[in-house]
Design goal:
alpha+beta; 3 helices; 9 strands
Length: 164
């Protein structure tokens, strides 16, 4: 049995577009072969590379994660033909910050207008600095999980907000 891979991350809203000047944008397109809360299987094209990722259920801010390189052509087929629709489209900025990196996702398509920053930590207690362009933490709010943005896109949130 292989070593357990884990992902420990925190998510935040972004309150300024200054991040655009701090890193280069890479286009991401990702879809889900399933959306079971206990195990998610994702297909992603990130720039010129493609990946198949399996994620387990969160325990706090940590969850098991396994990621494998796959051919871009295979990922393209899966995104169009096998993944649940709609797919998630976004531009990701990877920004070095101290000994870590912030990843800022500026969504397009069905989730246009939403901007989320994530920081992956070596462990749950690792200290990190929060830049001034980072806003409210949304780590525990499941509506911000990419898999849930597929089911309830950000465009629907704005429509509900506008109907007061």
């Amino acid at each position: 049995m292989g070593a357990l891979n884990k992902e420990t991350e925190r998510k935040f809203l972004v309150n300024s577009f200054v991040f655009r000047n701090l890193g280069n944008a890479v286009y991401y397109c990702q879809g889900y072969l399933n959306d079971d809360p206990g195990r998610v299987v994702r297909v992603r094209i990130a720039g010129e590379k493609a990946f198949l990722t399996i994620k387990g259920k969160n325990e706090g801010i940590t969850r098991p994660e396994y990621e494998y390189d796959i051919p871009v052509e295979d990922a393209g087929f899966m995104l169009k033909s096998l993944c649940l629709q709609p797919v998630i489209e976004k531009y990701r900025y990877k920004i070095p910050w101290g000994d870590l990196f912030w990843e800022v996702d500026e969504f397009s398509g069905e989730n246009e207008g939403l901007v989320i920053a994530e920081i992956e930590l070596p462990d749950e207690n690792h200290p990190f600095d929060i830049p001034e362009w980072i806003g409210e933490e949304v780590t525990s709010d499941e509506k911000y999980y990419n898999v849930n943005l597929r089911k309830n896109p950000y465009k629907n949130w704005r429509e509900v907000k506008g109907k007061k």
